[in-house]
Amino acid sequence: MSLANTSSSEQExxxxxxxxxANPAPNRPALxxxxxxxxxxxxxxxxxxxxxxxxxERGYKVAVVEGAKVGWGAxxxxxxxxxxxxxxxxxxxxxxxxDEFAGFVGGLVTEGGKIIRExxxxxxxxxxxxxxxxxxxxxxxxxxxxxxxxxxxxxxxMNDHEMLDKAQIAxxxxxxxxxxxxxxxxxxxxxxxxxxxxEAAAIEKLGxxxxxxxxxxxxxxxDADQLVLTDQGQIRCKTIVFCxxxxxGDASRxxxxxxxxxxxxxxxxxPLSDDIANGILPTDTCVEDVRYILDYYRLSxxxxxxxxGGTVYGGADPRDIKAKLKRNMDKVFPQLKDVKIDYAWxxxxxxxxxxxxxxxxxxxxxxxxxxYSGHGVTGSHTFGRILSEAIDGDLTRFDVFxxxxxxxxxxxxxxxxxxxxxxxxxxxxxxRLGV
Length: 435
Prior knowledge:
Mean pLDDT: 89
Low-confidence stretches: 1-9, 414-430
Shape: globular
Strand content: 25-35%
Number of helices: 14
Radius of gyration: 21 Å
């Protein structure tokens, strides 16, 4: 869902490698006049697409309204990594919310990856799916943290993890930067925008309607129905689902203060030769390190290195994305120092103060899900299924998340950015000092 007051040119996909290599997709119409349906989903990113697709499979009439293009936000710009888990670790969740909730979360954190694979298979989505992801450690302290993570995840029935010493991680990533790591055999990576476009095509195949370039201005009650108002039209429905995340804008003022937009950046090199590509990532898995402010990277289908990292609280773009990221890339892969960078882009994710995603209801017939805090690829697909369950009458899993307390950022909207920057600086310093 686009931010308010964006021009039509700003509503096109950003100049990213993903947009340049996207599968063909139709230009979907804007909403003009009145359209009637059972359920209106606001936002055509992963949360909205997943929710809509699950609901259509259950027999509902669904319309998706999007302020820009399908996959315009984080869903079409992210690192493309299928990483299990939430931003908040299971250990943190256990300490904060207790064993019962931690057990519940532990039982569903791999569900999103399974849903993605099922969607790709069922609807024949061409998005360059590849398997496994590696967590890389710079220090022995980080190795101990990964060992504890493996043990905790095993306790919750997840046994797809394997510890890697320095020699073993070198079989996955050729660099002297790491002392070891952990491989998740149930992880993976793919072309994120093409996944979103494929899910949108599946929605339309099942009879769903998608309106693009239709920014939601407001919603209101209309007797027994609800109205979703855009610049040129309105949707009359029984149920609304807000899935705008960091780009929801003013569509729902009640949700605006719950999360903060945070930008992260990615760049894509020129295509690498087979020798160079195999010399850095011989098994073609994706990698992320385990620092608080982390780097993440993988090879594209045409063997570019996609290298991402960094955060800017409040959602602003850095002045020079290439310069910011290339310093870190050169540290990991000095052999790529002279490689040309073809694309560099930025995008926002929605950060919640607790780093736990939020799901809930406003009134009786308005639902929402957001705040994946940088782990939305898998989480959004899981939450889409849970939202569809709730709308269909099964509130079992929905209520568990809806009842988790959420906390506003200290200092409100004015001070949330400087507060978070101070916290980020502190944890970044700990990363640099190795403590």
